[in-house]
C-alpha cells in the first residue's frame, strides 16, 4: 500500500528472481521450458522530495546519482520515435532500437556517463528509458523523488536479477503514475490487468539488456509461481495456478559461464547430428511437459496429502533425466557433474539450471527428508568449494509492499 508522508507519496514494490527448472537449450528450438520464481527479491522504494532533484540509489551496483529535476522533465517531454504514425501512443509502436540510442544520448546531456561502469550505465539507461515511456504524455504529473533499489539476487548468475530489476522499475513508475492521477492509496496489490501492462514495459527494459530475450524471465518475475513456455504453442506462456511451494538447495559451481558460446555449441552439434539431437530435444520437451503436469498435481495433493510423495519421486526422476539429456548435449561441466554425484550420494537428485557450462545447479528437497543426510550433503558440497543456499520455488510475483 502507498502512503503519504507529509504531502509526499511513498511507495515500495518488490519482485522475485527466477530459476529455469526444465528445458534449458531445448526451448531455443521450440520445445517446452519450465521455470519458477524464487524467494530472493529485488525491492524498490520511491519517495517524493522537496529538493527539486531526482536521486537514484542502486546499492547492488554502487550507483548513486542526483539529477536536476527540470532536466529530467525536459528529457521526458522529448520525442519518442515510433514504428508508424499513430495518434495513440503505445509501447508496442515505439522504434525500440532508435529510442534506446536516443535515450542514451539524452542521458549523456544530464549525466557524465564516462565515469560509470557498463553495468551502471545500462541500469541507468533502463530506468530513464522506462521513466520516459511511462510519463511521456504525463510529464506534468512528475514530482521530484528519491529512488532506492536493493536486491538479494546475485548479478549475472542466471537467477533473473535483470528481469527482477526491470519489473520493479516498471511496476513502481506505473503505480506512481496511477497515484498521481487517481490517488488509489488503499490499493494493496496489483491486478492481473496491471500484470500485463507491467510485463510489457519490463520486457522493453529486458530488450535493452539482452537484445532479444524470450520474455520468460520478466513473465516469471511479474506473475511468480511456475511458468511454462512454448514459443510455438497456442499460448506462449502458461502460469500454473495454485502452485506448490517447493524447497530446494541452490548450488553455485563457482565456474563462470558464457551463454552465447553454449548456445552455439548446441547449434553446431545439432548441425552435425540433426536427427540424434532432435530426439534429445523431443525427450527434453516431454520431460518439461510431464514436470509441469506433476507440479499442478503436487499443488493439489499438498492440500489433500494424496499421492504427494509418489508425485515428488517422479519429479526427482525427471530431474535426473533432464540432467542426463543436457550432459548429452555437451553443456554440463566437471563441477556440475561433481555436484550431482555428491547430492546423489545422500539420496538427493540435482541438475544444472540455465545455460550450463558452470553457473548454478539445484537439488529439490523431498518432503520429510532426513536432516542428517542433508547436513552431510551440504558439508560435502562446501568442502569441495561450492556455495549453497536454501530457496523456495513458486512464491509471489511483483507486489506492493506495505
From TrEMBL:
It is found in: Cytoplasm. Residues 309-370 form the GHMP kinase C-terminal domain. SUPFAM superfamilies: GHMP Kinase, C-terminal domain (SSF55060), Ribosomal protein S5 domain 2-like (SSF54211). Keywords: ATP-binding, Cytoplasm, Kinase, Lipid biosynthesis, Lipid metabolism, Magnesium, Metal-binding, Nucleotide-binding, Steroid biosynthesis, Steroid metabolism, Sterol biosynthesis, Sterol metabolism, Transferase. Pfam families: GHMP_kinases_C, GHMP_kinases_N. Belongs to the GHMP kinase family. Mevalonate kinase subfamily. PANTHER family: MEVALONATE KINASE. Its EC number is 2.7.1.36. It comes from the Eukaryota. This is Mevalonate kinase. Residues 140-223 form the GHMP kinase N-terminal domain. GO terms for biological process: cholesterol biosynthetic process; isopentenyl diphosphate biosynthetic process, mevalonate pathway. The keyword Disulfide bond does not apply. It is an enzyme of class 2 (transferase). Pathway: Isoprenoid biosynthesis; isopentenyl diphosphate biosynthesis via mevalonate pathway; isopentenyl diphosphate from (R)-mevalonate: step 1/3. It comes from Laodelphax striatellus (Small brown planthopper). It catalyses: (R)-mevalonate + ATP = (R)-5-phosphomevalonate + ADP + H(+). GO terms for cellular component: cytosol. GO terms for molecular function: ATP binding; metal ion binding; mevalonate kinase activity. The keyword Calcium does not apply.
Amino acid at each position: 500500500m502507498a502512503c503519504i508522508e507529509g504531502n509526499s507519496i511513498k511507495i515500495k514494490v518488490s519482485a522475485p528472481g527466477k530459476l529455469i527448472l526444465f528445458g534449458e537449450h531445448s526451448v531455443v528450438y521450440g520445445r517446452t521450458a519450465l521455470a519458477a520464481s524464487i524467494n530472493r527479491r529485488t525491492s524498490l522504494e520511491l519517495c517524493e522530495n522537496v529538493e527539486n532533484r531526482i536521486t537514484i540509489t542502486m546499492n547492488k551496483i554502487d550507483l548513486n546519482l542526483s539529477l536536476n529535476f527540470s532536466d529530467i522533465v525536459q528529457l521526458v517531454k522529448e520525442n519518442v520515435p515510433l514504428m508508424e504514425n499513430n495518434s495513440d501512443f503505445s509501447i508496442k509502436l515505439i522504434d525500440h532500437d532508435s529510442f534506446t540510442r536516443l535515450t542514451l544520448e539524452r542521458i549523456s546531456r544530464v549525466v557524465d556517463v564516462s565515469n560509470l561502469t557498463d553495468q551502471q550505465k545500462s541500469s541507468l539507461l533502463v530506468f530513464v528509458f522506462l521513466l520516459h515511456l511511462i510519463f511521456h504524455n504525463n510529464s506534468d504529473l512528475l514530482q521530484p523523488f528519491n529512488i532506492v533499489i536493493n536486491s538479494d539476487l546475485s548479478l549475472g548468475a542466471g537467477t533473473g536479477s535483470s528481469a527482477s530489476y526491470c519489473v520493479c522499475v516498471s511496476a513502481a513508475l506505473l503505480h506512481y503514475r496511477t497515484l498521481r492521477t487517481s490517488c488509489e492509496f488503499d490499493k494493496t496489490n496489483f491486478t492481473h490487468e496491471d500484470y500485463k501492462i507491467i510485463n510489457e514495459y519490463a520486457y522493453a527494459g529486458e530488450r535493452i539488456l539482452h537484445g532479444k530475450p524470450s520474455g520468460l524471465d520478466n513473465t516469471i518475475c511479474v506473475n511468480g509461481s511456475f511458468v511454462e513456455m512454448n514459443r510455438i504453442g497456442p499460448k506462449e506462456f502458461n502460469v500454473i495456478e495454485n502452485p506448490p511451494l517447493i524447497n530446494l538447495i541452490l548450488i553455485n559451481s563457482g565456474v563462470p559461464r558464457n551463454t552465447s558460446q553454449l548456445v552455439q555449441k548446441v547449434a553446431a552439434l545439432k548441425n552435425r547430428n540433426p536427427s540424434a539431437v532432435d530426439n534429445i530435444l523431443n525427450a527434453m520437451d516431454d520431460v518439461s511437459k510431464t514436470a509441469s503436469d506433476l507440479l499442478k498435481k503436487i499443488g493439489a495433493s499438498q492440500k489433500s496429502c494424496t499421492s504427494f510423495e509418489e508425485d515428488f519421486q517422479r519429479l526427482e526422476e525427471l530431474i535426473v533425466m533432464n540432467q542426463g539429456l543436457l550432459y548429452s548435449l555437451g553443456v554440463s561441466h566437471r563441477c556440475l557433474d561433481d555436484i550431482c554425484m555428491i547430492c546423489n550420494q545422500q539420496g538427493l537428485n540435482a541438475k544444472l539450471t540455465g545455460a550450463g557450462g558452470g553457473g548454478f545447479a539445484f537439488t529439490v528437497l523431498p518432503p520429510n527428508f532426513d536432516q542428517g543426510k542433508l547436513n552431510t550433503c551440504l558439508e560435502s558440497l562446501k568442502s569441495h568449494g561450492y556455495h549453497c543456499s536454501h530457496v523456495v520455488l513458486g512464491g509471489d510475483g511483483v507486489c506492493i509492499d506495505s
